[in-house]
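Why predict the complex rather than its parts? Because the way molecules touch one another can change local conformation, and only a joint prediction can capture that. The input here totals 226 residues.
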Amino acid sequence: KNEVEQSPQNLTAQEGEFITINCSYSVGISALHWLQQHPGGGIVSLFMLSSGKKKHGRLIATINIQEKHSSLHITASHPRDSAVYICAVSLYNTDKLIFGTGTRLQVFP
Amino acid sequence: DTGVSQNPRHKITKRGQNVTFRCDPISEHNRLYWYRQTLGQGPEFLTYFQNEAQLEKSRLLSDRFSAERPKGSFSTLEIQRTEQGDSAMYLCASSLASYRSSGNTIYFGEGSWLTVV
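Output of the joint prediction:
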């Protein structure tokens, strides 16, 4: 069993839809990261959170430490949101990341 | 913008050849990480430096792989006697660990794609 599990693996949506991607983890963490990866490779950090909720524009990330679960929400999705979204956790005393396998999101106009 | 820089971005090599990738982290960052990512998978940890010290190596890092970070600045990842299974993207990331030992923002390079033919 992977230490970081994401669902769904693939997600298609129509422009404007509300999107949720889920992440569960089984290890003790110091922080959870939501990352975005576009074709070609580059990874951009969207959020880093260790408790509660963060919002940036149309993106919202929440984490429940007791349940070891996090969600990434995209409101009013747009085709430019199409990318792979990766959940990763950093362990105590290091910034080393353990990654989920990613969720491939395609938003159609 | 002086983000994390990786070179070369793409490398095609014949099986058995040696390849070297370079990563230039954000200048004041003291931590540097190498990850490997194959198609359809999330990145996997390879190795990690704090300043010039290599603090951890994954079991994925066979004896054909070596990484260095002389003077605690740029890092190189060398793969000797490449095999087709080495074909992947090699990602570098860096962070600044100051008063917090973890939970610091991590910055990624664009990755170096390796194809072994």
